[in-house]
Amino acid sequence: MADQNAISVEDYEDNLPLAVIDAEAGKLGFFVPSRMAAFRVQSMFTKEPETMAWIAGFEAGSVLVDIGANMGIYTIWAAKHRNAQVIALEPEAQNFGLLNRNIHFNDLDGQVTAYCAAASDENAFSVLNLGNLQIGGSMNMLGEELDQNLEPREALFRQGCVSVALDHMRDQNIIPDPHYIKIDVDGLEHKVIAGAREILAGTSLRSVLVEINPNLDAHMALFDQFADLGYSVDPETKENWRAGRSGNCIFSR
After folding, report:
1. Which superfamily does 48-252 belong to?
2. Is 7 exposed, middle or buried (0-12, 13-18, 19+ CB in 10 A)?
3. What is the pLDDT of residues 31-70, one digit of tens each?
4. Alpha helices in the chain (DSSP H)
5. Neighbour count for residue 125 (Cβ, 10 Å)
6. How are beta strands 85-89 and 63-67 bridged, if at all?
């Protein structure tokens, strides 16, 4: 006997949940095939207000590299709201597929380019240790089975992955010199920065938003590294992690 609750493949494809947001930049659409994806859209203006304010300050037409783009919330907002050219890196396969679907729906082909790769300090074949299997999920770790505090954690699934240094991508003319970089990779931000030293020292880059985990010495060392390169930290965002929790910090010059 057929399942009374079953739907056809055609009905499924025609009725994928879509969230549409009316914003100053016009209507934005995001496919939301999971509760996590829906939450990301519902909280896009409240979850990280400092990120939204940072993007609002971009000069129109700037170049943003979004590291850990997930399903593209901030990628698409920057492209639509500030007419930014965006290079988005997202290594998790399900998120990468959703990211591209959202790029296409918002007519951003050519303005936004996504790569299924993890930014790091080396160019290598590796594995991505998944801490969440939901579409739109996060807490995945490149290379080792660790959590966001770099403590041992058994992966739910090990996905094949490639890592790449941003300096290499720039040197190979895969990406232009960016004006802004956003880094949110749940623990290995310091490795992303180590692989982008030439870009950070260059004259084009204006600002970097980094998720800082105050429990990690490698993250706390980033303040001196940015200062040595002539960057100052936004004092308001510096308060984000004082309570012992991860939070975004903005370094600018």
Report:
1. Vaccinia Virus protein VP39 (3.40.50.150)
2. exposed
3. 999 999 999 999 999 999 999 999 999 999 999 999 999 9
4. 9-14, 35-42, 49-56, 73-82, 93-105, 166-171, 189-194, 197-201, 217-220, 222-228, 235-238
5. 8
6. parallel
